[in-house]
Design goal:
This protein has about 190 residues and is an alpha/beta fold. The chain is about 50% helix and about 15% strand. Strands 1-6-5-2-4-3 form a six-stranded mixed sheet. The structure holds ligand AR6.
């Protein structure tokens, strides 16, 4: 029983080391990152909008809109991939988060699906490094702390079962978001 306990503890430590190595939390503008893919917090039309979506379309240039027009939209909780065009990132993974309506409209599961489907899309393209904004936590009103917990949980689950990604970067726009992400990382990932 003692060695079983030790093995379980070794396993936990290994997971923790892997998470610390692969997950990075930074403050900044996601459009500036030289990663294989950045995730966009899009809307169902995929035709652009405000927030991070607007910033991504502005930096990528009009060819992005031309491609997303052809994709023809995306249901909430799913993800679609386009090129990055003038962005430093090679790919944009467009995911559509839920609008927060108080929590009784399946919002948490839909947001978890955004992360799962974005990871699946990243794997499909052979991406090694991917950056996420706080999907749904802006205009769509999802409480940031709760959104962060879902993001961390899904990322941990993915990284535990898959060795295809080298780096997952959470990009926080504000200092406040940075603090929440860092706190959630210490309680959810390395606790
Ligand atoms: N880099 C990183 N994060 C950013 C950036 C940036 N350049 N700009 C904003 N954020 P939001 P949502 C943060 O509103 O809530 C659009 O109109 C921001 O501070 O962009 O999913 C779409 O077209 C926040 O923490 O996305 C949809 O209609 C996070 O990104 C709708 O907004 C997400 O905020 C989607 O709303």
């Amino acid at each position: 029983a003692e060695s079983r306990g030790r093995r379980a503890e070794d396993g936990r430590q290994k997971t923790e080391e892997k998470m610390k190595e692969k997950i990075k939390i930074i403050q900044g503008d996601i459009t500036k990152l030289e990663v294989d893919a950045i995730v966009n917090a899009a809307n169902n039309s995929l035709l652009g909008g405000g927030g991070v979506d607007g910033a991504i379309h502005r930096s990528a240039g009009p060819d992005l809109l031309e491609e997303t027009r052809k994709i023809g939209g995306c249901p909430t909780g799913e993800a679609r991939v386009s090129g990055g065009y003038d962005l430093p990132a090679r790919w944009v993974i467009h995911t559509v988060g839920p609008v927060w309506k108080g929590g009784s409209q399946n919002e948490e599961n839909l947001l978890a699906s955004c992360y799962r489907n974005s990871f699946a899309a990243a794997v499909e393209k052979g991406v090694k490094t991917v950056a996420f904004p706080a999907v749904s936590a802006g205009v769509y009103g999802f409480p940031l702390k709760k959104a962060t917990e879902i993001a961390m949980r899904e990322t941990r689950q993915f990284l535990e079962n898959d060795d295809l990604l080298d780096q997952v970067i959470f990009v926080c726009f504000s200092q406040e978001a940075l603090k929440i992400y860092q706190e959630t990382f210490s309680t959810r990932i390395t606790a």
